[in-house]
Amino acid sequence: MKKLLFILPILFSVNSFAQTLSLTDCIDAALNNKADIQAIRTENTIAGLQSQELLAKYLPQVSLSYEYRYNPIIPSQIIPVGEFAPIPTDETRAIKFGTAWQQNAGISVYQPIIDASVKSRIEESRINERIKNADLQIASEELIYEVMKTFSAVYLRSIQQQNAVIDTARTFRSWELIKARFEEGKVLKTELNKALLNHHNTLAQLRQAESEKVKEQIYLSFLTGLPLTTVFESAFDFGPFETPGLFDLSPELEMDSIPSIRQLHYQGGLARLQMKNEKKKYIPTVGLQGFLGANQFSDSFSPFQSNSWYGNSYVGLSVKIPILISENTPNRISQFATQSEGIRYRIEEQKNQLNQNILQLSQDIMYLNTQIEMSGENIGLMEENIQILQDRFQEGQINAYDLNSQELDLQKETGNLNQQKAELLQKKLEKAKSSGQLNLLTNKIKGE
Least C-beta-crowded within 10 Å: which of 245, 389, 403, 436? Predict the structure, then answer.
């Protein structure tokens, strides 16, 4: 039992010779190594490439064509030959046009000048790109939040572990004192057993703190992608959580900094843009069109027959005016208008929920700060009482029951304090996230 008390403090000092792992290191590793973040980044990159692809629609469209065909039946045309007589008549005659073999080759060019559909698709693609970017920001913020929660949990478990070592040493001393009096025949066996039970409780709390810390380290390894051995062997830098004023953030709700709110705004903007683009489908498209080529006509298979090729070319303006399209445009406009209205309600509802959540978190934080301060004072008084009781018990001035009872009360108060500290830190992190200031908190931790 005594060996345990000397070995445990040594275990806590081993990490002083290991590499240091900071919260910033963990956040950076998580953002760089997490597979789902990489997947969303890939989707974001694809969205950007799609926008660039649509810009190419304004470039000249050039195509090269070649055709060599055989006409088993040469088509005929009815020609009003009577119109060419000195005295015009109604005479007509069927005349075949063409040859059995025909080659066509040429190059065509089309340069768009006005095309509202291309512009609309580019605008929609850019908004979709912003929506994908908001997806990345949402996922990144959730991951940063989880890393902060887990890192802070390791910090709290480390403090609990250190406090549990001190508590174990104290209960062990109380047990030794009562054991010595028991051997003198001045203490009942039940009181000795109670002292040993108190000591076992502190040992159990120590082992629980160690186990919970290991589980948090395993989860931190999963979040960051760092090897488990690295997380176990590193000395954690808990400096940011011990810095006064770390959570002194703006009391205002930073709506523009909340990715989910921004994403809803983008979705609403996309619906309004799609509503406008539906009306643009009737705008004429204008472009320049040109062709340069040649045709060959031959009554036999002679691909290279001389004096059988005839040139063909043209340049002109192409205008297309949609009159009827196979879509119910008013219905689609109504759909997008309803969608935009629904998104507006969702934004309003989410803002109200965030405001309510922040007010509740602020109240919880105020209450926990008061409770922690009170519990800390209580623990200080109890520890002082136990020290006095141990000295008085050693001098035979009190019985073992008073000492055991005070030890049990201290254990309960210590457990309450640990729970309150953990809950307070989690509430502060949640408030920073809910108020859109998680990035500001991250920058403060990084010292930026």
Answer: 245
What distance in Å separates the CA atoms of residue 445 and residue 19, rounded to the nearest whole number? 19
Asked if residue 282 lies in contact with residue 120, where contact means CB atoms within 8 angstroms, the answer is: no
Strand partners for 317: 288
Mean pLDDT of the chain: 82
pLDDT of residue 5: 44
What is the tens place of the pLDDT at every residue in 107-156? 999 888 877 777 777 777 788 888 888 888 888 888 888 898 899 889 88
CA angle 388, 166, 217 (to 5 degrees): 155
End-to-end CA distance of the chain: 48
Q: Give the separation between CA 442 and CA 18, rounded to whole angstroms.
A: 25
| C-alpha to C-alpha distance for 306 and 285, rounded to whole angstroms | 42
Q: Which residue has the tokens 């887990």?
A: 150
**Cβ–Cβ contacts within 10 Å for residue 239, how many?**
12
Q: Which candidate, 171, 162, 170, places its Cα nearest to that of 200?
A: 171
Amino acid at 14: V
Backbone phi and psi for residue 437, each to the nearest 5 degrees, phi listed first: -120, 20
Give the number of other Cβ atoms within 10 Å of residue 263's Cβ.
20
Helix residue ranges per DSSP H, 225-295: 228-233, 259-279
Q: What does DSSP say about strands 20-22 and 235-237: parallel, antiparallel, or unpaired?
A: parallel
Structure tokens at 430: 């949640």
Q: What is the pLDDT of residue 11?
A: 44
Separation between Cα atoms, residue 166 and residue 5, nearest integer Å:
9
pTM of the model: 0.68
Is residue 362 within 8 A of residue 431, CB to CB? The reply is yes
CA atoms within 13 A on the CB side of 286: 5
Mapped to the 3 state alphabet, what secondary structure does 154-218 carry? HHHHHHHHHHHHHHHHHHHHHHHHHHHHHHCCCCCHHHHHHHHHHHHHHHHHHHHHHHHHHHHHH
Question: Beta partners for 100?
Answer: none
How far is CA 153 from its chain centroid? Answer: 21
Cβ atoms within 10 A of the Cβ of 429, count? 20
Which residues, including other chains, have CB under 8 Å from residue 368's CB and lie 6 or more apart?
420, 423, 424, 427
Retrieve residue 88's tokens: 């015009």
Structure tokens at 187: 């203490």
Burial readout 176-209 (b: 16 or more C-beta within 10 A, e: otherwise): ebbeebbeeeebeeebbebbbebbebbbebbeeb
Question: Cβ distance 47 to 125 under 8 Å?
Answer: yes
